[in-house]
Amino acid sequence: MNGRGQLILGIVIVAAAIAAPLIFPAFRAQIAMLWIMVLFALTWDIMGGQTGYNTFGNIIFFGTGMYASAVLQRDGGLDYFPGLFLGMGLGAVIAVALAAVLGSMILRMRGHYFAIATLGLGIAAGELASGWGFIGAGSGMSPPIFPAAPDVSYIFFGYLFFGLALVSFIVLALVYRTRFGLALNAIRDNEDKAEALGLKTDLYKVAAWMLAALFLGLCGGAAGNMLGFIDPRDTAFAGATFGVWMVLMAILGGKGTLWGPVLGAFVFHVTQELFWTYLLGWQRVALGLIIVAIVVFFPQGILGWVRARWPERFGHRIETP
83 versus 314: which is more confidently predicted? Predict the structure, then answer.
């Protein structure tokens, strides 16, 4: 897709995102969750797609932002909206600092060793939060109540998460065109050669994880308020759901691309909502079948399959004999 096509597609998506909560009032909660899913997929792809480091630990930054924001709102003595936005900022700062510390320790690992280490970190974070009384321990924590009707809150958070998703998309589009983006791709293609050419790969990997943590911390800080209750295992550090869905959505759409995670998030979220509506009781079985189908039939993702089938649409000229 050329630049003009991408611009037109972007304008259509922005217009649809603005109009959707007003046209479909019954689906405002689902629309807000859709933009969270887009953020999940985009941020996971920074490490998993662009850098080639498959992580199951990104949920740590989401949960950290969620708890940081809720604690500031609870103990800060602020009104709702100042507390919310300051809490989101605090969650982002803590998440970025956490990514810097954890990244400097475990990003020297590669392949499945790194993936297993991040999986363990996500589980450990959930267990730690479950035993910490200051944040409610296993009983969970309730953020402040939105000062308006539930329908209004879903409109507000829907637009807020859409704004975060849009900003993250634009930032990543710009970053991937810089030397930093090229360095991440070089690490993905052959890290040893990149190091031999003088690239400080550890610094680039840590910086990439910090960038993902920034947007996840902001997202988590607002998500707790929209959901209305923070459970350490099922909401904040939900590795079995959110943590896995991040990976699936990016792979489904086409990891290592800009539009792939967005497409994957749309397809996955809509499909999941349909399953929850029409296959209640069998929805997890159906999701399991989707996982198998993604791995078997779309190893390169939907965007990769389309690119291979119609390469001329993506600027690849095919010479015919």
Answer: 83
Give domain status of residue 96, yes or no.
yes
What confidence tens digit (pLDDT) does each residue in 234-270 have?
999 998 889 989 998 999 898 899 999 999 999 999 9
CATH number of the domain to which 220 belongs:
1.10.3470
Who contacts 98 (Cβ-Cβ below 8 Å, separation ≥6)?
60, 61, 64, 213
Residue 151, φ and ψ in degrees, nearest 5? -60, -40
321 part of a folded domain: no
* Domain total of the chain: 1
Range of the domain at 8: 3-314
pTM above 0.85, yes or no: yes
